[in-house]
């Protein structure tokens, strides 16, 4: 890897950091809480164990995360009748509204950040974003 590659990678890292700071500015949720809520929006009811696997944390850490979201009125826990140890988590109406608002905010920030780019650069950015998603899956 040459110096130009290193510079471009550093610039990309700065862009992501600045995006994250802009996105979280004045919000009452942290990034992992938001990512968890996005996952719940897309996948509805999830067990703590399945959620822990997806967000790459332990079930105990995930349970603590869900406790905090529940206190904020963002998620509900449902216990199964047959096995009280099995807990399903889903977004509340308030949680769904909040995550929808945050996704709109995220898209606005991305759109304004990409506005100086040419069409070709935007296409390249979109392809890179798709590659990063594949890496994270």
Automatic annotation (TrEMBL):
Keywords, comma-separated and alphabetical: DNA-binding, Transcription, Transcription regulation
HTH marR-type domain residues: 1-137
Gene3D superfamilies in alphabetical order: Winged helix-like DNA-binding domain superfamily/Winged helix DNA-binding domain
Residue ranges the record marks as coiled coil: none
InterPro entries reported in the protein's UniProt record: ArsR-like_HTH, HTH_MarR-typ, WH-like_DNA-bd_sf, WH_DNA-bd_sf
Pfam short name (any one): MarR
Protein name (record): MarR family transcriptional regulator
Organism expressing this protein natively: Fictibacillus norfolkensis
Lineage of the species this protein comes from: Bacteria, Bacillati, Bacillota, Bacilli, Bacillales
């Amino acid at each position: 890897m040459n110096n130009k590659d290193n510079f471009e990678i550093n610039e990309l890292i700065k862009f992501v950091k600045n995006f994250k700071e802009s996105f979280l500015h004045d919000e009452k949720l942290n990034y992992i809480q938001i990512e968890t809520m996005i996952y719940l929006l897309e996948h509805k009811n999830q067990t703590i164990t399945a959620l822990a696997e997806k967000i790459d944390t332990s079930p105990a850490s995930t349970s603590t995360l869900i406790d905090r979201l529940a206190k904020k009125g963002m998620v509900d826990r449902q216990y199964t009748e047959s096995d009280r140890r099995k807990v399903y988590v889903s977004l509340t109406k308030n949680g769904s509204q909040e995550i929808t608002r945050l996704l709109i905010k995220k898209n606005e920030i991305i759109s304004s950040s990409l506005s100086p780019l040419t069409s070709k650069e935007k296409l390249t950015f979109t392809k890179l974003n798709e590659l990063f998603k594949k890496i994270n899956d």
